């Protein structure tokens, strides 16, 4: 059955991939997690991001996206919730302080890693994507224009699973690059500057979402 929808799937997959690789809040959070807490936390955060996309897939399959598309109030609420979460993350990063001591030989900063559980790393990734209005707008615009109204629910579910997987894999690759020991050691003593910069970037994303 899926063979009949290959043109639609390829169009959706290409548009989605271009949206994923474009730097946004997910990228900023993955870079920060990987640099500060290491590869495992970066990968778990990426898994959270991929899983967070399932929220957008689910409400699209349930038809909520169509309702949001016709209700400016619901769309505004979604945008404000996403902006508030980005403000929270941005403020936390802007409060970053200079690192103390040296990074461990294996590239992991034990004292930092102990301050964040893998569950929290997953949760940060999940909430960053689940509350990301960029993803909401993507599904409102693309899923309602690229995907036909006669496309079976099972095929749409396959599209959703594909996009969740692509999100997770892409940000895993990002985490592998930025969690490399040489990269982390180089950034270690400048981490507070990097975090503050990333915090300002997140605040800028939040402002753009709230006022544009």
Give a verbal description of the structure.
With 212 residues, this protein is mainly alpha-helical. The chain contains 11 helices and no strands. Helix 2 runs antiparallel to helix 11.
List the helices and strands and how they pair.
Elements (H helix, E strand, L loop, with lengths): L5 H16 L3 H13 L1 H23 L2 H7 L1 H23 L15 H4 L4 H13 L2 H11 L9 H26 L2 H7 L3 H21 L1
Helix pairs in contact: 1-9, 2-3, 2-7, 2-9, 2-11, 3-7, 3-8, 3-9, 4-5, 5-11
Oligomer state of the chains in this structure: single chain
Helix content: over 70%
The rounded distance between the terminal residues' Cα atoms is 41 Å
Total helical segments: 11
The run of helices and strands is: HHHHHHHHHHH
Question: Mean pLDDT score, rounded?
Answer: 80
Bin the strand percentage: under 5%
Shape by Cα distribution: globular
Q: Indicate the low-confidence ranges by residue numbers.
A: 102-114
Report the C-alpha radius of gyration, rounded.
18 Å
């Amino acid at each position: 059955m899926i063979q009949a929808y290959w043109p639609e799937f390829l169009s959706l997959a290409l548009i989605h991939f271009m949206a994923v690789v474009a730097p946004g809040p997910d990228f900023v959070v993955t870079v920060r997690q990987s640099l500060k807490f290491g590869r495992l936390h970066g990968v778990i955060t990426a898994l959270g991001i991929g899983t967070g996309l399932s929220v957008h897939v689910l409400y699209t399959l349930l038809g909520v996206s169509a309702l949001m598309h016709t209700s400016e109030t619901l769309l505004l609420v979604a945008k404000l919730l996403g902006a508030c979460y980005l403000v929270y993350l941005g403020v936390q990063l802007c409060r970053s302080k200079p690192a103390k001591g040296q990074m461990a030989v294996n590239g992991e900063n034990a004292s930092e890693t102990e301050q964040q559980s893998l569950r929290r790393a997953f949760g940060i990734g999940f909430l960053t994507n689940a509350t990301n209005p960029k993803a909401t707008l993507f599904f409102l615009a693309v899923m309602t224009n690229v995907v036909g109204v006669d496309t079976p629910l099972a095929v749409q579910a396959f599209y959703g699973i594909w996009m969740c997987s692509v999100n997770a894999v892409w940000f895993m690759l990002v985490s592998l690059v930025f969690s490399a020991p040489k990269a982390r050691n180089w950034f270690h003593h400048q981490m507070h500057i990097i975090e503050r910069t990333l915090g300002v970037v997140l605040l800028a994303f939040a402002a753009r979402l709230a006022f544009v």
